[in-house]
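Below is a filled-in request sheet from our internal design queue. Each sheet records the structural input a requester submitted and the sequence that came back. We keep these sheets so that new team members can see what a complete request looks like end to end.

REQUESTER: design group, bay 2
PRIORITY: normal
MODE: inverse folding
CHAIN LENGTH: 80
BACKBONE (tokenized):
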């Protein structure tokens, strides 16, 4: 009746890459390779990078003037 990705439970515990045992194995390998202190530092820096990226995206959206604001402001006189 169900084939491939349409099987019940596939997206949650299914047969894909992100099974709980796969994620546990990836975490264990990362722990052995980097060590506990370096792994926490990597996580902290990754979180700060994502936060800075979001802040920069929000900052760029706030600085853009709308079309109405552009029409209401008079043009600047040329500088001599």
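RETURNED SEQUENCE:
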């Amino acid at each position: 009746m169900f084939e491939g990705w349409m099987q019940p439970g596939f997206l949650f515990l299914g047969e894909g890459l992100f099974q709980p045992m796969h994620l546990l194995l990836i975490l264990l390998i990362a722990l052995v390779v980097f060590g506990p202190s370096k792994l926490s530092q990597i996580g902290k820096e990754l979180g700060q990078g994502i936060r800075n990226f979001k802040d920069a995206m929000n900052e760029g959206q706030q600085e853009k003037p709308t079309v109405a604001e552009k029409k209401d402001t008079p043009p600047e006189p040329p500088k001599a």
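SHEET NOTES:
- The longest helix spans residues 36-63.
- DSSP finds four helices and no strands in the chain.
FILED BY: M.R.
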